[in-house]
Amino acid sequence: MKIDIDCVVSKKDWEEFLKLPWSIYEGNPYWVPPLLQEVRETLDIKKNPFWRHAKRELFLARAEGKPVGRIVAVIDDNHNSFHNDKTGFFGFFECIDNAEVAQFLWDAAVSWLKKNGMGAMRGPLNPSMNDENSFLLEGFDKSPCVMMPYTHAYYLDLAEHYGLKKAKDLYAFIKYAKDGIPPRIEKMIERIKSRTGVKVRPFNMKKFDRDAQFLKDIYNAAWEKNWGFVPMTNEEMDATGKKLKQFAEPSLVLFAEMDGEPIGVTVTVPDINQVLKKLNGRLGPIEVLKFLYYKRKITGVRSLVAGIKKEYRETGLIAVLYYETEKAGIRLGYKWCELGWNLEDNDLINKFDAAVGGKIYKKYRIYEMKI
C-alpha cells in the first residue's frame, strides 16, 4: 500500500481532513459526529484565540489517493512558558486500523515538532487540555458526553506500537438522580453550611460580564496546580463561554460566596451530544429545527468545571456546590450526571465522586514520548 503524507493546504485537503471521521467510524452506533463548522473554527488561526499563542501543522495521510488518516501537530507557547519545558502535542488523530499509516502520521508530527525545537510529544489534545482530549481507554459501548472524545479501541494499540507511553489516565464517573445523596453526605453538607455561612447562587444572566469574569478568575486560580493545566486567556474564556451559552442552563452554573465574594464555582451543562447525534455534523435550517426539538429531550448533564479557590479547599465547600447542583438538575428533570474528567491521581475529587454515589464508567488515556 502506497502511503502519502501531505500538509493540509487546499480546499480539497481541508474537506477530506474534516470529513475523514465519517469513514473511520462508519457503522459505529456510539460515535457522535462533531459539527463540521465547529471543528473548522477550532482549527482556524483567525477565529480561535488559542492560536494567538500557539501554532499548528495539519497532515493528511492518503493510500492510493484515498484519505486514511489525519493528525495535527501543535506547539503552545503558553504551555511551555507556564511549565518551563519544550513539549509539543498531537491532536485530531484519526486513522484506519493500520500501524504503517499511524507511523507515517506520528512521524510527520514528530518531524515538525523537532524542527521547531520540541523535545517531547504528548496527546491527543484537540488542541489543548482545555479542550476535548485523550483516547478512550474503557467504555467503548457508550456514547461520549459533551466535549468528551469517542475513539476506537485499536488507537491504543497503534499508539503503543509506535512507542508512545502512558502519561496520565482520566476518569469519568456516572451518578444517577434516582440514587439520591447518601444521608451521611447530606448531614455533612448541612454542617458545612452552618459552620461557614456559605451562600450558593446561580449565574446571573443580567450581569453576564461580571459573573463571567468571576468564573474566569476562579477557574484559573482553582486549577493552577493540576497536571498539564495551562491558564486560559480572557479571549479563550470568552470564546468558550460564547459556545456554551448556546445550550447551557444558567441554573446549573453555581457560585459559592463567602461574605459576598465568589470563591467557588461549578459549571454543569446539558449533554448536547444527544442532539448532535441527530445532526450528522451540519447545522442548516432543517438541523436547527432538529436541534430545538431534540434539545428538549436531553436526559443527562455533564459536570464540566468544579473549582474552589486554594484558601477554601479544605472547607468542604465543593460538596455544597455539588449538592446544590444535583438538586437543580433534578428540578430540571435530568436523570443522570457525568462527573469528570478527573485526573487518576486526584484522590480528593475521586473519593468525593465515589462518596456521593458516582461510579467510574469510562476511562481515557493521554500518551507522551521523548522525540
Set out the fold topology:
Blueprint: E1 3-7, H1 11-24, H2 36-43, E2 54-63, E3 66-76, H3 77-83, E4 87-95, H4 99-115, E5 120-123, E6 135-138, H5 154-162, E7 165-176, H6 183-196, E8 199-202, H7 208-222, H8 234-245, E9 253-258, E10 261-270, H9 273-276, H10 285-295, E11 300-308, H11 317-331, E12 336-343, H12 347-355, E13 359-370
Task: Give an overview of the whole structure.
The model has no long low-confidence stretch (mean pLDDT 94). The longest helix has 17 residues, at 99-115. The protein folds into 2 domains: 3-171, Aminopeptidase (3-Layer(aba) Sandwich); 174-363, Gcn5-related N-acetyltransferase (GNAT) (Aminopeptidase). The protein has helices spanning 11-24, 36-43, 77-83, 99-115, 154-162, 183-196, 208-222, 234-245, 273-276, 285-295, 317-331, 347-355; strands at 3-7, 54-63, 66-76, 87-95, 120-123, 135-138, 165-176, 199-202, 253-258, 261-270, 300-308, 336-343, 359-370. It is an alpha+beta fold and 371 residues long. Helix 6 (183-196) crosses helix 11.
Keywords:
Aminopeptidase; 13-stranded mixed sheet; globular; 12 helices; 13 strands; alpha+beta; 371 residues; single chain
Structural class, from helix and strand content? alpha+beta
Strand content: 25-35%
CATH class of the largest domain: Alpha Beta
pLDDT below 50 for ≥5 consecutive residues: which ranges? none
Shape summary: globular
- Please, how many domains? 2
CATH-assigned fold name of the largest domain:
Aminopeptidase
Q: Give the C-alpha Rg.
A: 21 Å
Distance between the termini: 27 Å
Biggest sheet overview: 13 strands, mixed
The helix content is: 25-40%
Per DSSP E runs of 2 or more residues, the count of β-strands stands at 13
Number of helices: 12
- Written as H for each helix and E for each strand, in order along the chain, the element string is EHHEEHEHEEHEHEHHEEHHEHEHE
Second rung of CATH, namely the architecture of the largest domain: 3-Layer(aba) Sandwich
CATH superfamily of the largest domain: Gcn5-related N-acetyltransferase (GNAT)
Q: Please state the average pLDDT score.
A: 94
